[in-house]
Design brief:
Blueprint (H helix, E strand, L loop, with lengths): L10 E5 L1 H4 L2 E4 L2 E5 L3 H8 L8 E3 L19 E3 L1 E3 L5 H6 L1 H4 L6 E4 L11 H17 L3 E4 L15 H18 L4 E3 L3 H4 L22 H15 L33 E5 L3 E6 L11 E10 L5 E9 L7 E6 L16 E6 L3 E2 L8 E8 L6 E13 L6
Parallel strand pairs: 1-6, 1-7, 3-14, 7-8, 8-9
Antiparallel strand pairs: 2-3, 4-5, 10-18, 11-17, 12-15, 12-16, 12-18, 13-14, 13-17
C-alpha cells in the first residue's frame, strides 16, 4: 500500500455523538457548532482544513440519531457521526460512507460500548473498522476512547481500566499498519491533576461530551497535528478585483466590503458584514468565509458567521453556532485571544429576488464589557453543488 498526501479540503469524521455534534441542523438551517472539535480545527487552521457537509433532511436507515426512527441529522457530507451508536453499528455503516469522496478519516468508536461489551470485543471491532477503511485506500486516524467524568464512569471502575487497554491496542495497531495513525485527544482533555483521569473543569457539559473550551482545546491540537500529515495550503488571497460577474467571473466575490471592525456593547448584536451582497441567481450554492481576530474576553458566549437567504423559504448557514444546553444554558468561549477563519456550510438560494445577507452574531454574558473584533477577508461566493451522486 502506498502512502499518499490526503486532501485537507475533504476530511471525514466517523463515530458517535462526539462526532455528530460538530454539526447541528434543522429544517431551515445548518451550522458548525462551537462545541465541535472539528469545527474549531477548521477555524484555527484559518480555513485550511475542511469537513464539508450540506443540508439534507433525509433519513437513511441506520443513520438515525440515538436510534430514533424517522429522525434526521439534517445534513450529509463527510461528518459520519451518529449519536448513541455502538462500534458494531458504526461498522455496519461503512459500505454507505465508503461511497463518499475523501482521503483521510478520523475514527471514534467504542465509547458507547464500554459498559456493555468486553475490552477485547471493542478493540476487535475498532480494528475491523480501521482495516476496512485502510483496505479502501484511506488514511485512518484513530481516536482513543475519550476519558469521562466519574459521574459517567465510576471512580476506579472497570470502564476506566478497559479504556486504557483499548487505547494501547490502538497505538499498537497503528504502529503495524501503513497509513494509520493515532490522534490522542485525551492529551489536552484529561486533567493531569485528576486522580481518576477526568476532563479538565469546564471542558465537558456532562462528563462525557464536549463543551466549548474542551472542543477548542482539542480542535487547536488537531489543527497542529494535521500540519504534519496534510500538504501546507497557501494563505487565502482575496484580490480586490475578484468580483462576481455573471458572464466572465460567475464564481467571484459577492461582497463589496472586505473588512470591518465590529464593536458589541450589548448582550446580543447582529453585525451586517460585506455590504450589499450581489444576488447570483436562484438555485446557486453559496459559501461565506472571513477572518476574525478576537481579543481575550471573559463574557463571550458566541461569535458566529451567519449567511442568510431572505427568500420566503430561504435557509441559514452558520459557522460556529453557540452551544446551548437543553435548558437554554449557553456555554462560554475561552477567555484568550484567538485568530481564525469562520466558514459557513454551503447554502442553496431559494426563489426570490432579494440578495442574501451576511452577519457576524455576537452573544455576551449579561453585564460584560464591550468587545471589539477585527474582521477581514470577507468572501461570499458561488460554489459547486456539494450534492454528489
Amino acid at each position: 500500500m502506498s502512502v499518499s498526501l490526503p486532501r485537507a479540503s475533504r476530511i471525514a469524521v466517523l463515530g458517535t455523538s462526539l462526532v455528530q455534534q460538530n454539526h447541528i441542523g434543522d429544517a431551515g438551517s445548518l451550522a458548525t457548532s462551537a462545541r465541535g472539535w472539528m469545527s474549531w480545527a477548521e477555524v484555527l487552521s484559518h480555513g485550511r482544513l475542511s469537513c464539508p457537509v450540506h443540508h439534507d433532511p433525509s433519513v437513511p436507515s441506520g443513520w438515525e440519531p440515538s436510534n430514533r426512527p424517522g429522525v434526521s441529522r439534517f445534513f450529509s457530507g463527510l461528518n459520519f457521526g451518529v449519536s448513541g451508536q455502538k462500534a458494531v453499528e458504526i461498522e455496519r455503516r461503512l459500505p454507505r460512507l465508503l461511497q463518499s469522496d475523501f482521503d483521510l478519516i478520523l475514527v471514534d468508536a467504542g465509547t458507547n460500548d464500554m459498559m456493555v461489551e468486553s475490552r477485547q470485543t471493542i478493540a476487535d471491532t475498532r480494528a475491523r473498522i480501521a482495516s476496512a477503511l485502510l483496505d479502501a485506500g484511506k488514511t485512518v486516524i484513530l481516536l482513543p476512547i475519550l476519558a469521562r467524568g466519574v459521574g459517567k464512569w465510576p471512580a476506579g471502575g472497570a470502564e476506566r481500566a478497559k479504556a486504557h487497554w483499548i487505547n494501547r491496542q490502538s497505538i499498537e495497531f497503528a504502529a503495524s499498519h501503513a497509513n494509520c495513525h493515532v490522534f490522542d485527544w485525551n492529551a489536552v482533555w484529561v486533567d493531569p491533576e485528576s486522580e481518576f483521569g477526568e476532563p479538565y473543569p469546564g471542558y465537558s457539559d456532562d462528563g462525557a461530551h464536549f463543551s466549548v473550551p474542551g472542543a477548542f482545546a482539542v480542535g487547536k491540537l488537531l489543527a497542529t497535528y494535521l500540519e504534519t500529515i496534510l500538504p501546507r495550503a497557501t494563505d487565502r488571497i482575496l484580490a480586490r478585483d475578484d468580483r462576481f460577474d455573471p458572464i466572465n467571473n460567475p464564481a467571484g466575490n459577492l461582497a463589496p466590503d472586505a473588512s470591518a471592525r465590529v464593536v458589541t456593547d450589548m448582550i446580543e448584536k447582529n453585525h451586517r458584514l460585506g455590504g450589499e451582497l450581489v444576488h447570483p441567481g436562484t438555485g446557486v450554492w453559496l459559501k461565506a468565509i472571513c477572518d476574525v481576530d478576537v481579543p481575550p474576553h471573559e463574557g463571550v458566549l458566541g461569535i458566529s458567521l451567519r449567511l442568510k437567504d431572505v427568500a420566503t423559504e430561504g435557509q441559514e448557514a452558520t459557522a460556529l453556532a453557540p452551544f446551548r444546553d437543553n435548558d437554554g444554558t449557553v456555554f462560554s468561549f475561552p477567555d484568550i485571544r484567538w485568530k481564525g477563519a469562520l466558514r459557513t456550510p454551503p447554502l442553496k438560494l431559494r426563489p426570490g429576488s432579494a440578495p442574501p445577507e451576511l452577519y457576524l452574531d455576537i452573544l455576551l454574558r449579561p453585564g460584560s464589557n464591550p468587545i471589539a473584533i477585527d474582521v477581514s477577508r470577507i468572501d461570499v461566493r458561488p460554489v459547486s453543488s456539494p450534492v454528489r451522486a
